[in-house]
Amino acid sequence: QKEVEQNSGPLSVPEGAIASLNCTYSDRGSQSFFWYRQYSGKSPELIMSIYSNGDKEDGRFTAQLNKASQYVSLLIRDSQPSDSATYLCAVNYQLIWGAGTKLIIKP
Amino acid sequence: GAGVSQSPRYKVTKRGQDVALRCDPISGHVSLYWYRQALGQGPEFLTYFNYEAQQDKSGLPNDRFSAERPEGSISTLTIQRTEQRDSAMYRCASSLETESLGSNTQYFGPGTRLTVL
Prior knowledge:
The complex is a heterodimer. In chain A, 0% of the residues lie in helices and 53% in strands. Chain A is mainly β. In chain A, strand 4 (33-38) and strand 5 form a beta hairpin. Chain B contains no helices and 11 strands. Chain B has strands spanning 5-7, 10-13, 19-24, 31-37, 44-50, 53-56, 65-68, 75-79, 88-95, 107-108, 112-116. The radius of gyration of chain B is 14 Å and the shape is globular.
């Protein structure tokens, strides 16, 4: 069964530090990878998508993909309290989702 | 423009009743997805459409669940003979299309909270 695994957390990070979120997937043929943010009681919203091995940066966010090791990560630099949310990893046209990692940024 | 809308936002029903949940996608979006999300979990795929064609319904839990998108726009998810275990947040999302990289970002609606008593 195709799966996406994430540490459920919570991951607690001091304000201003780097938050690192990880996701592993089982389907080696996966082509597309997505990070969504979901605030409590709200719908998921896309942060970044990545399709090729390596790093992709967008503002304070960097997605990293390693297809050989079957993991994708999200780094958040200069973490802010407003980054506190659950971060969901999704794979393959977003039809396979992880359970999410709860991130808490402490002021 | 308007985002994805869903109605009703909240639905309380008695066990054994049928319910219909509606999703109105972003105008022009080819692909429409239905998910179910339990508290503290990621979205669970139910089914998706390209235009009016149902492409994959492998996530529908059983034959009490069905979905349609007859004109390639608005979609309805129907649950017949509801059971308490059907209680969840039902989310709809749409995207420009499914297969092309870069055009498959999904935009989610606010969800319908279904409670079966």
